[in-house]
């Protein structure tokens, strides 16, 4: 019978193979776009067999799903880090929203999450993944501000969807933009939009 140590080594090897596949696929998808990348290119870059790839992923779309999930998680972490740099809940909201727009200018994020993501995965699947990452942080921030009386009491879910939709649309527009002045302009307009939510009574 295999020893516990040998079994653990196999688990670590499988996890490392999966990490390598996702990392190499991410590089290729970001550089060339989903449609132009073949599984043969991925396994070649990862130095594994196709059998090893199919042990972890059912198809190229399944592999791409894992890559998008990783990118969205990283975007959520960057949004959280920007928000957590502030103590005031309102400043946390503004900083987090600004960070989301800023990270949308990252070429990898643009290609994988904003351009190919909705097209390959379908809007419903892409939106569900977005809600599990960045949108969740937005909802939590709005709940905190409403409970603190900074924003007038209102249903959180429709407000979160409206703001998330506006920022996703702005991020998609920024992904197609080549003007470096567009990000500051969008960020300023977003600040005005958020300011209109404050309860100044």
Report what the structure shows.
The protein has 201 residues and is mainly alpha-helical. The chain has ten helices and no strands. The chain has helices at 4-32, 39-46, 50-56, 60-84, 89-103, 107-121, 123-132, 134-147, 156-176, 182-195. The termini are far apart.
Order of helices and strands: HHHHHHHHHH
Largest sheet: number of strands, sense, barrel closure: none
Count every helix, treating DSSP H or I runs of 4 or more residues as helices: 10
Strand content: under 5%
Q: What shape does the CA trace take?
A: elongated
Number of strands: 0
* Spatial gap, N to C terminus: 73 Å
Chain-averaged pLDDT: 89
Spans of at least 5 consecutive residues with low confidence? none
Helix fraction?
over 70%
Keywords: DNA-binding, Transcription, Transcription regulation
Pfam families: TetR_C_41, TetR_N
InterPro entries: DNA-bd_HTH_TetR-type_CS, Homeodomain-like_sf, HTH-type_TetR-like_transc_reg, HTH_TetR, Rv0078-like_C
DNA-binding region: 38-57
């Amino acid at each position: 019978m295999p020893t516990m140590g040998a079994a653990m080594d196999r688990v670590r090897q499988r996890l490392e193979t999966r990490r390598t596949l996702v990392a190499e696929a991410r590089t290729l998808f970001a550089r060339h776009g989903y449609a132009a990348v073949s599984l043969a290119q991925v396994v070649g870059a990862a130095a594994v067999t196709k059998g090893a790839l199919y042990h972890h992923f059912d198809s190229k779309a399944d592999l791409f799903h894992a890559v998008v999930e990783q990118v969205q998680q990283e975007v959520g972490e960057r949004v959280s880090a920007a928000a957590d740099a502030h103590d005031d809940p309102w400043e946390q909201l503004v900083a987090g929203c600004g960070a989301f727009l800023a990270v949308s200018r990252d070429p990898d994020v643009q290609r994988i999450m904003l351009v190919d993501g909705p097209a390959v995965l379908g809007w419903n699947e892409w939106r569900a993944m977005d809600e599990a990452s960045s949108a969740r942080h937005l909802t939590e921030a709005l709940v905190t501000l409403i409970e603190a009386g900074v924003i007038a009491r209102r249903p959180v879910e429709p407000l979160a969807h409206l703001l998330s939709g506006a920022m996703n649309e702005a991020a998609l527009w920024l992904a197609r933009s080549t003007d470096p002045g567009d990000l500051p302009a969008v960020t300023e307009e977003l600040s005005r939009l958020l300011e209109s939510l404050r309860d100044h009574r």
